[in-house]
Amino acid sequence: MGLGWMEIGTIMVVAMVVFGPERLPALAKQAAQFVKMLRQMAQNAKAELASELGEDFQGMNLRDLDPRAAIRDAMLSEPPPVQTPTKRVLGPNEQPPFDSEAT
User: Fold this and answer.
1) What pTM, to 2 d.p., does this model score?
2) Helix (H, G, I), strand (E, B), or coil: what is residue 92?
3) What residue numbers bound the domain in which 33 lies?
4) What is the full DSSP assignment across 24-84?
5) How far is residue 37's CA from residue 43's CA, in Å, rounded to a whole number?
6) Is 10 contained in some domain?
């Protein structure tokens, strides 16, 4: 979810109109302090988790626990098996296979 220059510019113009140029620097400073506080809280939580888990999990990366990453790594490590479809031509009076439970 990246923001391009067009989105950032639109946000800045809307913020300038809504809050005014006088209050905008103070709001930007508050937003920066909030982001800094969130980062500090995340670092503290990671440090606390690492200390609770102990030395056995010292070098473990939290991204390793993401199931999507595990599946992606497994898919990239082995190429999928190549399956060639088998085609069978029906005879002139032959009925195609029918599965009554298919629908």
Assistant:
1) 0.47
2) coil
3) 28-77
4) HHHHHHHHHHHHHHHHHHHHHHHHHHHHHH-GGGTT--GGGG-HHHHHHHHHHHSPPPP-P
5) 10
6) no
Number of H helices, E strands in the chain: 2, 0
pLDDT, tens only, 10-66:
988 888 888 888 888 888 899 899 999 999 999 998 888 878 877 777 777 777 778
Look at the chain and report how many structural domains it folds into.
Answer: 1
CA distance 51 to 74: 30
Are 96 and 90 in contact by the 8 Å Cβ rule? The answer is yes
Q: How far apart are CA 68 and CA 60, in angstroms?
A: 17
Whole-number Cα distances in Å, 11 to 8, 88, 91:
5, 60, 66
40 part of a folded domain:
yes
Please provide the distance, in angstroms rounded to a whole number, between the alpha carbons at the two ends of the chain.
Answer: 39
Rounded CA gap, 15 and 28, in Å?
Answer: 10
